[in-house]
Amino acid sequence: MATKKYTVTLPEELAEEIRREVGSGGFSAYVTKALERQRERDLLGQLVNRLEEEHGVVTEAELAAAEAERKELEAS
Predict the structure, then answer these.
(1) pTM higher than 0.90 for the full model?
(2) How far is the C-alpha of 14 from the C-alpha of 12, rounded, in Å?
(3) Which of 15, 17, 30, 63 is disulfide-compatible with 10, CB 3.0–4.6 A?
């Protein structure tokens, strides 16, 4: 994937905390992963909104059934 430099403004304490943990060479990779995760969440949120507009909001009963199915699959 092609890369390009950007200038962003970050809270200094947060940026320095991350830099200490990952080292200066890992900072860009860390920020890239964070942006990718946020983008995935944004897109998922858009999908949920679209589906809720089409089919209505998921009920508590539907959530409970899905969680029970997830646990059953996880156990097997």
Answers:
(1) no
(2) 6
(3) 15
